[in-house]
Design brief:
about 290 residues, Ribosomal Protein S5, domain 2, 2 domains, six-stranded mixed β-sheet, four-stranded antiparallel β-sheet, about 35% helix, about 25% strand, globular
């Protein structure tokens, strides 16, 4: 029985500038994204009938009725239909989702799961799609899915569909922290009082950590002030992370996850020990960010 396993790494918005809004309501963004070396895990295997099973510390939050709209199943169905149109038959598949990331937490968990599902099923079904077709399918699933398909450091503009790799972005030790409070992304965008912030400025041409920390310090997450108003725990979380000596602390995406950057993974791991002792009921994880090389 064939089986394939794909990591679905956490997506971290190091900076997120809201630069406009289209007539159809979609917001225009300019965002720098990196990925963690940990996250959810997707496993697919041949089966007699389609199935989705769950495990992991946050699997209990995916209710049965919610699963019907799960991006993993949408990715499976969209890929199957696309391949059918191209004359490629697909067998039933059993998909297992190991849910290690908090739900609706601003680190792309659902989008990463969908992207990993696409990668795994293309292997299982021994199929291939031209890159433009695969990217278009990913975008239909969600604005973050094209980024998560690549899972490399990148800059995304537009609604997230224009992606440019960042080969010089260095690797950092990182903390991911979440107070286990969900924040409504539509509510945050609706509450914005301004949608024409300046885009991200010039980026370092080297992989020097200090150069990037300085540049990142001049950037921002335009959703963070609103998110802090809707979820006061975000401000408390960011302060706790900052107090551990993080080089940079910021909210990722629409929250409520915040991250801290450290020069090494070892420093991040020590900071997690400190934070878990202070807030044992919150989620904390030390990770390495990925690099393209």
């Amino acid at each position: 029985m064939r089986e394939y396993r794909e990591n679905a790494p956490a997506k971290i918005n190091l900076a997120l500038h809201v630069t406009g809004r289209r007539e159809d309501g979609y917001h225009l963004l300019d965002t720098l994204v990196t990925f963690a070396d940990r996250g959810d895990v997707i496993t697919v295997r041949d089966a007699d009938q389609d199935a989705l099973t769950l495990s992991g510390p946050f699997s209990h939050l995916l209710e049965a009725e919610t699963l019907q709209n799960n991006l993993v199943l949408k990715a499976r169905d969209d890929l199957r239909e696309t391949l059918k149109i191209r004359g490629i038959t697909t067998r039933p598949v059993a998909i297992h989702l190991e849910k290690n990331l908090p739900i609706a937490s601003g680190i792309g968990g659902g989008s990463a799961d969908a992207a990993a599902t696409l990668r795994a099923l293309l292997k299982l079904w021994n199929a291939d799609l031209p890159a433009p077709n695969l990217q278009a399918m990913a975008l239909r699933l969600g604005a973050d899915v094209p980024m998560c398909l690549r899972s490399i450091p990148l800059r995304a503009t537009g609604i997230g569909d224009a992606v440019l790799p960042l080969p010089t972005l260095p690797r950092f030790g990182m903390i991911l922290g979440n107070p286990l409070k969900t924040v409504s992304t539509p509510s945050i965008f609706k509450a914005l009082t301004r949608r024409d912030y300046p885009p991200i400025g010039p980026l370092p041409s080297t992989s020097n950590q200090n150069d990037w920390l300085k540049a990142l310090g001049d950037m921002r997450n335009d959703l963070e002030p609103v998110a802090r108003q809707l979820c006061p725990e975000i401000a408390a979380l960011a302060q706790l992370i900052s107090d551990t000596g993080a080089e940079l602390t910021r909210m990722s995406g629409s929250g409520a996850t915040c991250f801290g950057l450290y020069q090494t993974l070892e420093k991040a791991e020590k900071a997690v020990d400190t934070l878990q002792a202070i807030k044992p009921e919150w989620y904390f994880q030390a990770v390495h960010s990925v690099s393209e090389v």
